[in-house]
Design a protein that fits this description.
By secondary structure, this protein is α+β, with helices and mostly antiparallel strands. Among the domains are: about 60 residues, no CATH class; about 50 residues, no CATH class. The chain is built from five helices and six strands; from the N terminus they run H-E-E-H-E-E-H-E-E-H-H. The protein has a two-stranded antiparallel sheet with strand order 1-2. Strand 5 and strand 6 form a beta hairpin. The longest helix has 26 residues. It is elongated, with a radius of gyration of 44 Å. This is Ribosome biogenesis regulatory protein.
Length: about 220
């Protein structure tokens, strides 16, 4: 029996039409990444950041204005939908409470210089004198052995006023001779207390002047 050779051939594709050729030639070349990125908000600073690139190099003023308007509208919409709004208790005006800022901003002014230590602070630091929890050296009370209880150092019923209300006052002849006309031994304690307060005020003013001269003012 005779055999025949059979060869399988694929049909020849028809030629492209003119319209197909134009479509292929008009396809745009690969472009840069112009994918739109969602804006981010810092409502505490009323800040919106849109990282999406602008078209054109450089972008036109119209594109910049359009993008700015879009960002401003997005910021206002986000504020109105996320921040609580309440009425002012006095004039009934509307107030919006902003969240804490998230973007750190630089300071407008430099950091203040440290305050110059006073003469007493330098002396206390040198001698190791510290303050207790009440803020006063040694506390604000002392033990009165005569009364058998703790009494305030100063103020109402203070230890510094001890003896002023006594009926009998021990007279120191030396101090009595040094009194001026009209002064009495009974009022000597009060005069000493006032003079001590005035000396303290003078020392405080002197310390302030010394600190200003040292350039410690901030």
């Amino acid at each position: 029996m005779a055999t025949e050779d059979i060869t399988m051939t694929s049909p020849t594709p028809p030629p492209l039409s003119a319209s197909h050729t134009n479509i292929t030639s008009q396809q745009p070349p690969p472009s840069t990444d112009n994918t739109a990125h969602p804006p981010t908000f810092d409502l505490g600073n009323l800040l919106v950041t849109d990282p999406s690139p602008l078209s054109g190099h450089p972008p036109s003023d119209t594109d910049i204005h359009t993008r700015a308007q879009s960002c401003a509208q997005a910021l206002i919409t986000t504020l109105l939908t996320t921040c609580p709004i309440h009425a002012h208790p006095t004039d009934k005006s509307l107030l919006m409470t902003l969240p804490p800022p998230t973007t750190p901003l630089p300071r407008e002014k430099p950091l203040p210089r440290p305050r110059e230590k006073t003469r007493w602070e330098r002396f206390a630091e040198k001698k190791g004198i510290t303050k207790d929890r009440r803020g006063e050296v040694g506390g604000n009370k002392v033990y009165d052995e005569g009364k058998g209880e703790w009494v305030p150092k100063y103020g109402y019923k203070g230890r510094n006023k001890q003896g002023e209300g006594e009926w009998i006052v021990e007279v120191d002849e030396g101090k009595e001779k040094g009194l001026k006309e009209g002064e009495t031994v009974r009022g000597e304690g009060r005069r000493e207390r006032k003079e001590k307060a005035r000396r303290g005020e003078r020392k405080e003013r002197a310390n302030e002047r010394s600190g200003r001269k040292g350039g410690g003012g901030g």
